[in-house]
Design brief:
Number of helices: 4
Strand content: under 5%
Number of domains: 1
Shape: elongated
Helix content: over 70%
Distance between the termini: 23 Å
Largest sheet: none
């Protein structure tokens, strides 16, 4: 379990840095576009790239945010239940979310493969955009991996609690 957790943390940390680089590129591009709009003419394709870079930044931060428990959760009803019930509900939630994001990652990867095969390109800059689609798919898979670890922690934690009662 700790090996899987360490691999997950390493991968999510690396891809968080990659997403951070895309975020810096977005900031530089926005500043350059504002400056050049006053001086001469704006950078072509800024709107296009902002959309694709924004998707990458968001997708690659999903897993890391889940590790840090930074996603919004409304648990006002769950807090009234016993620890055992809370653990069970967390396990069910982690499992359902893991299946959803695993399926989403798979479907997005299939769509990216179709885009690659057909040679789709962006309208303004004429660049292929299947790498961005694969990046979003990767982000979904990383989140599914973190959710798998959360699910296993709930199951193993519950199992250890039962063993301690004996």
């Amino acid at each position: 379990m700790t090996a899987l957790e360490k691999i997950s943390q390493f991968l999510n940390q690396v891809f968080l840095w990659v997403g951070g680089c895309f975020l810096v590129a977005m900031i530089v591009m926005t500043c350059a576009n504002i400056f050049l709009r006053f001086v001469w003419m704006p950078v072509r394709g800024t709107f296009e790239l902002m959309g694709y870079f924004g998707a990458i930044v968001t997708a690659l931060a999903l897993g890391y945010t889940q590790i840090k428990k930074g996603h919004i959760s409304v648990d006002i009803m769950v807090l009234g239940f016993s620890k055992k019930t809370q653990n069970f509900l967390n396990a069910v939630n982690s499992f359902i979310c893991m299946v959803f994001f695993g399926a989403a990652g798979w479907m997005i990867a299939r769509h990216a493969a179709t885009l690659c095969r057909t040679g789709e390109i962006t309208e303004t800059l004429q660049i292929v955009y299947y790498p961005f689609t694969y990046g979003v798919s990767l982000g979904c898979f990383l989140l599914a991996m973190v959710l798998l670890i959360d699910f296993l922690k709930c199951i193993i934690g519950d199992y250890k609690d039962k063993e301690g009662d004996k």
